[in-house]
Each structure stands twice: as structure tokens, then as C-alpha cells.
Amino acid sequence: MKFMLMMNTPIGGDYQIMSWPKQDIEAHIAFMMDFSRQLAEAGELVGAEGLSSPSQAKLVRADRNGYPVTDGVFPESKEFLAGYWIVDVESAERAYAIAAAASLAPGVGGEPLFLNIEVREVMSAPPA
Amino acid sequence: MTSGFASGAQVGHLLRELAPQVLGAVLHRFRDLPACEDAVQDALLAATVQWPRDGWPDNPRGWLIQVALRRMTDQVRSAIARGRREAAIAADVSLVVAPDLYHEPALDPDDTLALLFMCCHPALTPTSAIALTLRAVGGLTTAEIARAFLVPEATMAQRISRAKQSIQASSIAFGLPESAERAERLGAVLSVLYLIFNEGYTASSGTELQRSDLANEAIRLARLLRELLPRDAEVAGLLALMLLTDARRDARTGPHGELVPLDEQDRSRWDRAAIAEGVALVSAALSRGSIGPYQLQAAIAAVHDEARHARDTDWPQILALYGVLLRMGDNPVVRLNHAIATAMVHGPAAGLELLAPLDADPRIRGSHRLDAVSAHLLERRGDRDAAIALYRSAATKTTSIPERNYLLMRAAREPPSRADSGQS
After folding, report:
1. How many Cβ atoms sit within 10 Å of the Cβ of residue B280?
2. Chain B neighbours among A 77-106 (CB < 8 Å)?
3. Number of C-alpha atoms within 13 angstroms, CB side, residue B287?
4. Largest pairwise CA distance in chain A
5. Architecture per CATH, A2-121
6. Which residues pair with A2 in a beta bridge?
7. Are B303 and B314 in contact (CB under 8 A)?
8. Angle at B365 between CA B364 and CA B368, to 5 degrees
9. Collapsing DSSP states into helix, strand and coil, what is residue B137?
10. What are the angstrom distances between the C-alpha of A125 and each of A2, A6, B124, B154?
């Protein structure tokens, strides 16, 4: 079973890595790298990507002629997607356990951030 | 026909050497790139199965060319049989009537060169040219190229197939360019090889800073090009630039994959043999007199590589070389590096003065590089708060994870204490 684990971080909340002390940033980066490596070593990692800063994001829709109209991200967004993992696991429970481990990523002073991880099962394609 | 046993790895290595020669020879007779490429792939596949089992053929290249030519002839015959004259028209019909297949075709280095010019044609987008060059000249499999660029194999297969089709559709000729456009076409080849190198050296996306296979492949292709054009100073310059940059590979990342900047690298881990080769190449090229941008960039890399410690770097010479490079063409990245060199020679304020006009240059305005360089110079001037703001701004703009991490750490690091500040 494949699941997408989405790491949503609040805008203007605790996840302001920019303002953390150096050793806390280091610990957080090391945690994330270890986390992906362990998933890969367990044979469960399908893919993972980190997304660039939401300040660089654009909302796009087509105008009447099909040309793109871009806009900045709406300021009322409270959370943004920082990155995701796709895992292939035996059960939904295993996916939740992985998500809970990611939720404990360390923040300021090494305290766990208790991040919200959205877990969604990936739909399978119909048999060919 | 056997002359000893062949291991799978030996066969793979030799096949990659031979692939462009074989494709060049087949294209020389049948001008249809998609069909020729398929035929050569079939021949390479047959070799990977048969050679380890039956031993080396006496003449591996001739063996491959014969198998590929036979495959092409079969295709043309069956096209004619199906009445598809247009499919056969591109081929030399006399070959079909009396195929001279058992006669060993002479190795013509110009065929390999023509193949390289074709794959790097300026009508192709850079991504297409890169993929096609790695496949047709580099002899990499589609799966290997897909892995190097972190895309699914089906996506890369489609990219390569579309590149071949656009060569066919634009009637790009197989042959060496006329002298009038030769410089431009060679420039396109050098640029594709350098893009492959940079993709390997500084992965443009993802968590790994370096994907060394691509850097190695670019160096291999640059060596091939240099064998084909031994007197071209810019070809030598490009190979030297790659070697002199790649020599720092091992020192460029820390134990956790983090980026280590040039002035903090452990220089004992630099590859002295690569540096010696690069320095010899660029010195010989520069002494010949037709100076170009690759030679100048290689010369700059050589000055860095020859300094045993960062503090020994001959910055006045680097500044002079960037000055020459700037006069050859207005390039914002060169301006950026020229400003850094100026700061090293004349102090950070002088460097910052040169950066100011780049804020108005749409080619680099708002890029993370401009912010990062400004931040470094502001930090050196002692303006820590302004530097932090720009390091953070650069961190939100870069799409490279190791680079973002480096910039975040730079913004967060403690300002040097009074006791340390005299040391550097």
C-alpha cells in the first residue's frame, strides 16, 4: 500500500527555522536526512521531495485564452506544504507510525515540533 | 572468432567507448538517426549477451558495425517491400542491392565528431541535447540517464525519442558544419558538455549536492572531443576547467552531505593528479594565443587549486583574469565573481559597489546568488544584521537543499569572537 505523507507547516508559527539557533537547525537537518535514509534502508521509501519556500510560490489559473495568470499565494493560507514522502508499506498503521516519527522532528532546544503530517493513501491504477 | 573471455563489466566499458564510433559509421551510410540509433542499440544488446558467453570477437567495432548495418538493411528492405518508398529514400539504395557488409568500414573520427555536432545542434533545447548526447555519444542506457536526472525511465525515453524526431524533422544534416557556422556549432557542443558536468557537480535539484556519474561522463566526453580536435584551445580549456573543478569534489561536501565552501575545504583532499593535468592543459592552451572563456575560467580554477591554503590564493591574478573575462562578454555571473575578487583584493566595500548595479539587471536581480554574495561581503564588512537578512532571503530562493542548509547555517552562526577574528 502506498501512502503520501505530507508535512504541513504553519505560516508564522513555530516552524520558523530561519530564526533558530545554529545547533537547532543542524539537529533538525540531521533528523530529516536520517529519517529519509532509514526509510530507504527499510525498503519503504518510494520518493521524497522538499519544496522551496512558499514566498516563491505562485497561484496560476488560465485566462479566457488559455494563457497563465499568476498570483502570489493568498495571504490567508494558514499552512503550507513543506515537503512529502511517499512510502510503500504493509498497512495503514505502519504509515501512521512513520508519520508520527516525522512529527517528532526537533525544533528549538531539541524539543519535538509535533508537526501535523497529513497521511493519504495513493490510489492504485486499474489492472491493465 | 574468439580471442579470450570477456567479463560483463569489460564488455560494458568497451561498448560505451565504441557506441559513438559505431553510430557514426552507420549514420554515415543511412542518414536516419532514429532508425540508426535503434539498430546500434540492438547491436550493443547482442554484444552484451554474446561476448561474455562466446568471448571477444577479433574486431569488436567491426562486429558491432556489421550487426547494426545488417539490421538497417533488413529494415530498408522490408520498407521497400511494403511499398514505403519514402522510408527507403533516405538510404543509399545501392547498399541494399549489394550490401558491402563484410568489408570492415574504416574508422573515420569525423563520423564521431559529426554525431556530436548533430546531438548538440542549437535547434534542440538544452535538455533534449543533453539526453541525446549521453545516449548516442556517451553510450549510456536510457535507464542510466533517467537515474542521473532523477526522472522516471519512461519520461527520459520519451525525451530522447522526441529529440531524435526533432533532428529528423528539422533536417539537421549529418556532417561537419561549414566553416562559417563551425564556431557557433562547436560552442553549442562545449556548452552541452559543460551543462552535463555542472548537472553532475552541482545537482540542480534534490538532496544530493553532487551526482558524480554525470561529472565523470562529461569529462569522458570532453576527452573524446579533445582527441577529435587536439588543436582547439577552447576544447582543451573546457576539459581543463572540468578537471580543475572536479579535483575538489571530495573536499566539497562534509560527512553529512553538507556543502563546504572553497575557503574552508581540506585542501589535502584535492586530487593532485587531476590538478596537474588541468594546469598542464590550460597552460598549453593559453600559450597558443587564441584565448576564450573556457580557458580563462580554467585559469581561474587553476589559481585556486594551486594555493595550498585559502589565505595563499593569488587574488590579484584572479581579479585580472575576471577582468579579461568581462571584456569578452557581458555576463552577470561573471560580474558577480568579479565583484568577489575585487572584494578580496580591495576590500568588501569595493566589491559591494560593483554589486549595486546588478540589482537592476533582470538576468540576475532577485536570484539567490546575488543575495548570497552580497551577504558574504556585508558580513566581511562587519554588517552582520544586513548579512543575516540577505542569507535568509537567499535561503528562501535557492532550490538546492544543501545550498539552502548552508545559507541557513551561515545566517545562524555565531559572529566570530574578538579572539578569533584576527586568525582568518
Report:
1. 14
2. none
3. 6
4. 53
5. 2-Layer Sandwich (3.30)
6. A88
7. yes
8. 75
9. coil
10. 12, 21, 34, 17
Could you say which of B207, B398, B413 has the minimum Cβ distance to residue A22? B413
Provide the residue type at B1 as one letter. M
Which H helix or E strand runs over A80?
Answer: strand A79-88
| Alpha carbon distance A91, B259 (integer Å) | 37
Q: Is B156 exposed, middle or buried (0-12, 13-18, 19+ CB in 10 A)?
A: buried
Entry pTM: 0.84
Residue A104, classed as helix, strand or coil, is coil
ipTM confidence score = 0.80
Average pLDDT, chain A: 87
Task: Give the pLDDT confidence of A51-91 residue by residue, as tens digits.
Answer: 888 878 888 999 999 999 888 776 666 788 889 999 999 99
- CA of B155 vs chain A CAs: smallest distance (Å): 16
Continuous segment of H or E residues that includes residue B352: helix B348-355
| Amino acid in position B133 | T
Domain ranges of chain B: 8-106, 108-206
- From chain A, the residues in CB contact with B412 under 8 A are 20-22, 25
3-class secondary structure, B71: helix
Amino acid identity of B80?
I
pLDDT tens-digit map of B97-126: 444 544 555 667 888 899 999 999 988 999
What one-letter code names the amino acid at B419? A
**Contact yes or no for B398 and A29 at CB 8 A:** no
Tell me the per-residue pLDDT of B48-65, one tens digit each, with 9 for 90 and over: 888 888 888 888 999 999
pLDDT at B30: 85
